[in-house]
Write a structure and sequence with these properties.
This protein is α/β, with parallel strands linked by helices. The protein is built from five helices and five strands; from the N terminus they run αββααβαββα. It starts with 23 loop residues before the first helix and ends with a helix.
Length: 166
């Protein structure tokens, strides 16, 4: 016996589909909200005599200021992850990667809460569009191709320019 599929609203020619009314079944929607379950962490131990280096998901460089003694904090801001949720695996990847940073402490809290804990410790961070609300001493990123600048409509148009320098 041959399988004979039921006739559905999709069983139309391409020329007909754009002019069809939207079927009722496609008008029913469900809210879609993503959440990131951040770990509960203790307050970090801060030595106020040392600078505090703030790491985040955009800066997990284990070589950043590795020549100085410092408080090293991986900051997981709830407000950031409400706006930009990530999966549990992404969070696990990030926290696992942070273990390459000697003596890093993971802190779930807002930047202002962290700076309140640092006392008179100098706070240093790398500039990023998601860290515009940070205060303290900001540093520029070290770009792989610092001489490449401008607008690129796609990653590959950017990469073609970079590839020429390799």
């Amino acid at each position: 016996m041959l399988y004979k599929p039921a006739k559905t609203f999709l069983d139309q020619g391409y020329d007909i589909l754009p002019v069809l009314d939207v079927p009722d079944i496609l008008n029913q929607t469900e809210p879609f909200t993503l959440t990131t379950k951040l770990p509960l962490t203790a307050e970090p131990t801060i030595d106020e005599q040392l600078p505090t280096l703030v790491y985040n998901s955009y800066n997990l460089d284990p070589l950043w200021h590795n020549d100085i003694k410092a408080n090293r904090i991986l900051l997981l801001e709830p407000s950031h992850y409400r706006k930009y949720p990530v999966s549990e695996r992404v969070l696990m990847f990030m926290t696992t990667l942070s273990k390459n940073i000697p003596d890093v402490q993971i802190y779930t809290g807002e930047f202002n809460d962290l700076t309140a804990l640092t006392g008179c410790s100098k706070v240093i961070y790398k500039k990023h569009p998601t860290s515009l609300h940070y205060t303290g001493e900001s540093e520029e990123y070290e770009y792989l191709f610092p001489n490449i600048a401008g607008y690129f409509p796609s990653f590959f148009s950017y990469w073609k320019r970079c590839e020429a320098l390799l």
